Amino acid sequence: METITLNKQQQRRGEILAKLCAKEISKDDAQRLLGLSRRQVNRIVKDFKANGLKSLVHGNSGRIPANKTDAVCQEKILDLAGEDGKYHGFNICHTTDLLLEMEGISIGRSTLDRILRKHNIIKANKRGRILRRGRSMRERASQEGSLVQIDGSSHDWLCGRGAKMTLIGGIDDGTSTVVSLLFRPTEDQAGYLMLLRSMAIDYGLPESLYHDKHTILRSPKEAAIEDELAGREPQSQFQRVISELGIVSVPAHSPQAKGRIERLWQTLQDRLIKEMTLSGIKNIDEANIFLPGFIARFNARFACNPSNPEDAWVAIESDMDIDYYFSTSESRVVRQDHTIKWYSRIYQILYDKEHIVRSGERVYVHNTPEGRLYIYSGKRRLQYKEVQVSKPASEIKRTQREAKPPDPDAQARRRAWLFQGNAA
Known about the structure:
The chain is α+β, with helices and mostly antiparallel strands. It has four domains: 8-56; 71-118, no CATH class; 148-221 and 231-302, Ribonuclease H-like superfamily/Ribonuclease H (Nucleotidyltransferase, domain 5); 327-387, no CATH class. It has helices at residues 8-21, 27-34, 38-51, 71-81, 92-102, 109-118, 189-202, 225-230, 237-245, 259-279, 284-302, 322-325, 393-403, 408-423; strands at 148-155, 165-172, 178-184, 208-211, 248-251, 328-333, 339-342, 345-349, 362-367, 373-377, 380-382, 384-387. A five-stranded mixed beta sheet has the order 3-2-1-4-5, sandwiched between helices. A four-stranded antiparallel beta sheet has the order 6-9-10-11. The protein is elongated and about 125 Å long. 21% of the residues are buried.
């Protein structure tokens, strides 16, 4: 004899249908009690008369769902995400991505969340209500390359396995595409020039850059009288570079204004740190080698389509002198012997019959982020060589005296003499 188990709702429905079949209540009463239409009442009454109480139980009751996660698969997931697993402490979305990419396990985010909560591997985050200052939402840029946000984030990216580093990066405002990332020991001028150069080579030049008021990106100096008369504003080296490239500089007045890249740092300080830990990254060189593959996977996961499909990137010319534009520049005056002095070094400008540089003419020394030096007259690169200048005899003797270690006996005699003089 078959046993049928009914819950309270099914028992109540069975009682109503039994009374309806016994004509103790009308169909109108049954329709009202069941909360169903007349057509549905007729259907379930017909099924109840044919199959009895069995009709009240859903056909899928007791069956194993076709999409249920396999027990072996669940065990593997629990081992990977458990306390001793390599994905322990990763957030649900990140774990879902890594299980698919690294382990070949395809599982839904909500299913993974349910499994991990069931086994107390993760717990719900209880956050209180945070009162924030009201701000209006700024719409995304409509085109890719129209606005790129750049910034630097100083953090313990290696979790104590190496020195503290700064991650310098840029993200496209219209698509959330990470256009470039690189690690530097500190947030420095060379890092931003390398970032801009990498962006120009891989994508092109953006219409505008959105950044904070760091002195590398925006000069804090006040305009001198000569600058005011000429209509010029003081510029940092980075400002000069983007001005020559035709890129508009847009300074943000608060971190919240450039929220897209600030949220990127929050995401990277979770995902990137954990993936570098998995890969055993221990220094800045290994970290920079790791970044390109991470950026490709990150963009495939999070980048979105812009509202305007036509991008705004300005492609650089194939014959563009990269070293001229993406470098610092300082002017020097050519001396009578056709040399220039640059930070205690003397450089001889070599003769070029196609472009003769005369004494008194102003040339420009460009220094790339890697430390390569080039001398330009206008935009024409000049040939030069470093001149070794012999030091005067007096300077050599002074250097030798400074390099000579102190005589401890002489110091003792001097102290004795001073003591005798004080005693007298």
